[in-house]
Design brief:
single chain; 4-stranded antiparallel β-sheet; binds adenosine-5'-diphosphate; 10 helices; alpha/beta; binds magnesium ion; 6-stranded mixed β-sheet; 10 strands
């Protein structure tokens, strides 16, 4: 193995430019997500967080540059290899996380059924195991999503994102809409699953409590690039105006209490 700086990046965004017409969203953006870390992606509205996430998931192509995921180039890789990546990551979307016409059980079973190789007994065991993992009792399996609380819906959606035992987990605003208590317990669950399943997690969020409680590192998207990268304590010291406002505001100071650089 060479001692290349890119060797331990499970997600490696290199010199990415994204342009919509004349609007440049990403200008020569670089980002390396390391194996086993929780990386939070923050930035103002319209700074290009969701676009970057979609590019990493191969749902959109950058104008220029390259993104490698688990060693596979989304731009120059073999089509079959890129396709195979889809079973190696799970995604928790902010909205529409569940199919409302399907029960909790069927929602979690869906990705397993799409594999077309698993028998019904095995699917049942895997689904119940995943539900247990996210702390959903078996009696809820037959319920419809509409009868669950917001916190439970998030956990079931998480069980589904984890059904194929992915190496990477992507979360878009996972705690939005949850009250502080549920938000905190959801963060604890993510931290627990990360340890148990040795996941690498990329999370878009603007919730500072969430960021502080589970991030190993934070990447700040501003000025069309990653303007700051480091631990929460390191990034909070950065002089960029967005960061100063974000971390040094009233909420920021409260969330950061007790952290030392
Ligand atoms: N398909 C698209 N066509 C044109 N502009 C887009 C498209 N997708 C995103 N944008 C623009 O790119 C910028 C970044 O969007 P987005 O990634 O959604 O930001 P964020 O998630 O950080 O709020 C915004 O100005 C948005 O309007
Ligand atoms: Mg967005």
């Amino acid at each position: 193995m060479s001692g290349n700086e890119h060797d331990d990046c499970v997600i490696d965004v290199r010199n990415v430019w994204t342009q919509f017409g004349t609007h440049v969203v990403h200008r020569d953006l670089n980002l390396c997500v390391r194996q086993g870390e929780v990386m939070s992606l923050v930035g103002g509205s319209g700074s290009g967080k969701s676009t970057l996430l979609r590019e990493i998931l191969g749902l959109e192509q950058p104008t220029r540059g390259e993104i490698r995921v688990l060693g596979v180039s989304l731009q120059h890789g073999v089509a079959e290899e890129i396709q195979a990546l889809r079973n190696r990551w799970g995604m928790l979307f902010q909205e529409g996380a569940m199919f409302s016409a399907l029960s909790v059980f069927e929602n979690v079973a869906l990705p397993l059924r799409e594999m077309k190789t698993l028998d019904e007994d095995l699917i049942h065991d895997l689904v119940m195991l995943k539900l247990k993992m996210v702390d959903i009792e078996p009696r809820h399996a037959s319920k419809m999503p509409s009868s669950l609380s917001g916190g439970m819906v998030k956990r079931v959606a998480l069980a589904r994102a984890l059904s194929l035992e992915p190496e990477l987990l992507f979360l878009d605003e996972p705690t939005a809409g949850l009250d502080p208590e549920r938000s905190e317990s959801f963060c604890k669950l993510i931290a627990y699953l990360k340890r148990e399943l040795e996941l690498t997690v990329v999370m878009v969020t603007h919730d500072l409590d969430t960021i502080v409680s589970i991030s190993d590192r934070v990447a700040v998207l501003a000025d069309q690039k990653i303007a700051a990268l480091g631990t929460v304590a390191e990034v909070a010291q950065h002089p960029h105006p967005f960061i100063v406002e974000y971390f040094q505001g009233e909420r920021g100071r409260r969330a950061l209490t007790g952290l030392t650089a």
